[in-house]
Design a protein that fits this description.
The chain is of the alpha/beta class and 408 residues long. It is built from 16 helices and 13 strands. Helix 2 links the parallel strand 1 and strand 2.
Length: 408
């Protein structure tokens, strides 16, 4: 809280104060939540006060410390689990949710609604009804039918659309000049002041490994992210088996929660681990809040995803000076300079993942040290929260000063 007070004192005099409602569909904490909270803390320096609205899929509510937040049930229209029942419930509750969110916008004097995800359209509809401009974060990978329905809605309702990479901007606005004109690139960000590498601190590293239950002298390769199919954990495990064949003391860790909405995938991962005879070598650590500490215990970080935008966990690993191997998805090639700040490999290719990890484990250590130093510098210069928050503030400020504010 002391950091928050100091940030408010640093707010430039005479600068307009803006109240923002940031809307996230899922209450289960992951990279988007860590990014949103990091940005909200930094935006206070500019005079933006953020409130959070999130969908309530489970009873495990996300409550970012020091921010006003509101859970809202049944705002997700499309689900894989019980889709028909969920859709009927969504339709029944929709008028109430729209009225409730609209009242909140009015009573809290919200000036910008920042919507995270194209399928998160209920807060956007309420914002349009209330005449509040919308910043819409287009970070979804939509199947064809949904894309044909929802992208025109985003194009029509939003004041600004944000994507997290130049390549994503090209692909998602192709053939839609109106959407392209509204779209700007805003990468993910991390607070490098809070991500401090423990260089050569063996005692700290051993203590964290002891907490995790892995040997102090092992070579630890890890991945961070909730257990959903897009994270590519099947390919991570298959690569682990190949690495284990050559490096006997290699161990592997997956940090992320089991999702109640996709228990079949979790069961598949456990069965695959057993089939590859990795039960003694792979740790499923579940959800943890101390991601920087866990990263400091790793020898290599792997992002095996098959779909991503601009993954926060990858930036966190680079900032913590952990050598990274990442698949060529989303904006990864804009984040990692292959061979200089990490390795980029094709998605769905466990052989390529294993080769890249082994090149780090067996390669010249001086080369690895240079790689992680360059990676840290890249994050500080291009993906630091100070840089990205300034760009996000300018988006908000431009919208609030625009004479073309939405009428209800």
């Amino acid at each position: 809280m002391s950091d928050d007070r100091s940030q408010r004192r640093d707010s430039p005099e005479g600068r307009r104060h803006i109240r923002v409602l940031y809307c996230i569909l899922d209450n289960r904490v992951g990279g988007p939540h860590r990014l949103a909270e990091t940005m909200a803390r930094r935006l206070r320096c500019y005079g933006a006060e953020t409130l959070f609205l999130f969908g309530q899929k489970t009873d495990d509510l996300w409550r970012p410390d020091g921010f006003e937040s509101f859970p809202c049930k049944h705002i997700q229209c499309f689900t894989r689990r019980h889709p028909v029942l969920n859709f009927l419930r969504f339709c029944c509750v929709l008028p109430y949710n729209l009225c409730r969110i609209r009242r909140m916008l009015k009573s809290r004097h919200i000036e910008v609604v920042h919507v995270d995800g194209v399928t998160n359209f209920v807060p956007a509809l309420a914002a349009r009804w209330a005449g509040v401009p919308i910043v819409w974060h287009y970070n979804d990978y939509l199947p064809g039918p949904l894309k044909r329905v929802l992208v025109p809605l985003v194009t029509r309702l939003s004041a600004t659309v944000i994507v997290q990479g130049e390549g994503l901007r090209e692909s998602r606005t192709a053939g839609n000049d109106r959407l392209r004109a509204k779209t700007r690139v805003l990468y993910s960000a991390v607070d490098t002041d809070r991500l401090v590498p423990q260089d050569n601190n063996k005692a700290q590293r051993d203590r964290i490994r002891a907490e995790l239950g892995v040997p102090a002298d092992c070579l630890l390769i890890g991945s961070v992210g909730n257990a959903n199919q897009f994270k590519g954990y099947t390919y991570f495990l298959e690569a682990a088996a190949k690495i284990k064949e050559q490096v006997a003391r290699a161990r592997f860790i997956v940090v992320g929660r089991k999702l109640d909405t996709d228990t079949a995938y979790w069961d598949h991962l456990q069965q695959l681990t057993a089939r590859l005879e990795l039960q003694e070598s792979v740790l499923f650590a579940g959800f943890r809040e101390d991601i920087p500490r866990v990263l400091s215990a790793l020898d290599v970080f792997v992002l095996a995803s098959i779909l991503e935008s601009c993954p926060v966990a990858l930036l966190e690993a680079m900032a913590m000076k952990v050598p990274v191997v990442a698949t060529r998805v989303g904006a990864v090639e804009e984040m990692v300079d292959n061979g200089r700040t990490g390795f980029v490999v094709p998605p769905r290719d466990p052989e390529a993942i294993a080769r890249a990890v082994l090149s780090i484990l067996k390669g010249p250590q001086e080369q690895v040290r240079n790689m992680v130093e360059q990676a840290r510098k890249t994050v500080e210069e291009r993906f630091g929260v100070k840089t990205i928050a300034g760009e996000q503030w300018r988006v908000y400020e431009k919208i609030c000063h625009s004479p073309l504010r939405h009428a209800p």
